[in-house]
């Protein structure tokens, strides 16, 4: 089932206490409403490449934190040799719920809330789209300046403490991260930079090749889920100021994707709990293939 923020943080504490030697907590921000935005680092040895996972920047996309927490548990408890390889030969930095205030709001008030919960000056409307608030081509196109819109970019880049905190964390640790994945739903797509232009980044061929490996691996499973891929602006729509573009342009993380998980629209954001485990397993298969292919690039 889906859990509330409090349960997710209790789970983190339990895991941190149980796997003391290979885990470490970190906090990237205090939210507008004063909650910590917490993450967990999993590292079995020094010198590993680093993988950063951002999840639930959009409050209503519950499947993302359900998958991120399952992922944490798998990395620490699975005896599957492929998962052990992932766990022990990479450093994982996983933030299961970035938009903590919005997430709590979706549990208590409005299941379909997307944005943060910080009020906007001179507006009756509340909240900014975190995935338009990063300081990378902020507001150049395809984001809204209307505080009442669901893709409102905020009054200024980094106006949201959650986004500012993550940006600073990524920037100040840039040499640690080789891959960044931003978990979203829904659409069953892998989106690579750029979001602000249909021009493609220098390593576009590599990014599409790695995305293809993900889609193939997921497609091979008995669930039969189909994933498509492409650049954000090319395959979906303009989305400037998004996490992966900040990661690519400002934190020098050249393998980075938005992963739009299940489904393709039947249930949309309100994905029934019966989908959680299948979604987790196919995401694991996809990420495994993604990392293997990325590693082959050298
Ligand atoms: O609009 C978004 O922020 C993402 N889709 S969602 O339905 N989960 O809200 C897609 C963003 C993709 N673009 C970039 N990452 N640049
Ligand atoms: Zn989203």
UniProtKB/TrEMBL annotation:
Residues 1-294 form the Peptidase M14 domain. The keyword Metal-binding applies. Keywords: Metal-binding, Zinc. Its cofactor is Zn(2+). PROSITE patterns: CARBOXYPEPT_ZN_1, PEPTIDASE_M14. Transmembrane segments: none annotated. The active site is at 260 (proton donor/acceptor). SUPFAM superfamilies: Zn-dependent exopeptidases. The keyword DNA-binding does not apply. Belongs to the peptidase M14 family. This is Zinc carboxypeptidase-like.
């Amino acid at each position: 089932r889906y859990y509330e923020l409090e349960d997710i943080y209790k789970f983190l504490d339990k895991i941190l206490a149980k796997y003391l030697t290979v885990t470490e907590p970190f906090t990237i921000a205090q939210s507008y409403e004063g909650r910590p935005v917490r993450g967990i680092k999993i590292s079995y040895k020094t010198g590993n490449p680093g993988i950063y996972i951002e999840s639930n920047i959009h409050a209503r996309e519950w499947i993302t934190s359900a998958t991120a927490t399952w992922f944490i548990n798998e990395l620490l408890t699975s005896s599957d040799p492929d998962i052990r390889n992932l766990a022990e030969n990479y450093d994982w930095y996983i933030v299961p719920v970035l938009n903590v205030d919005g997430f709590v709001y979706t549990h208590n008030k409005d299941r379909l809330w997307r944005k943060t919960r910080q009020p906007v000056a001179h507006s009756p409307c509340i909240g900014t789209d975190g995935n338009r608030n990063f300081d990378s081509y902020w507001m150049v196109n395809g984001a809204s300046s209307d505080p009442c819109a669901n893709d409102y970019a905020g009054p200024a880049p980094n106006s949201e403490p959650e986004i500012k905190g993550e940006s600073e964390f990524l920037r100040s640790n840039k040499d640690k991260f080789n891959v960044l994945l931003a978990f979203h739903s829904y659409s069953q797509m892998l989106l690579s930079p750029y979001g602000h232009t249909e021009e493609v980044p220098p390593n576009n061929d590599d990014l599409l090749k790695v995305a293809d490996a993900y889609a193939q691996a997921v497609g091979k499973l008995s669930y039969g889920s189909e994933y498509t891929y492409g650049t954000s602006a090319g395959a979906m729509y303009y989305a400037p100021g998004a996490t992966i573009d900040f990661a690519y342009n400002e934190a020098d993380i050249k393998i980075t994707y938005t992963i739009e998980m299940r489904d393709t629209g039947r249930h949309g954001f309100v994905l029934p709990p019966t989908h959680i485990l299948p979604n987790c397993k196919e995401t694991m298969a996809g990420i495994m293939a993604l990392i293997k292919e990325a590693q082959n690039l050298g």
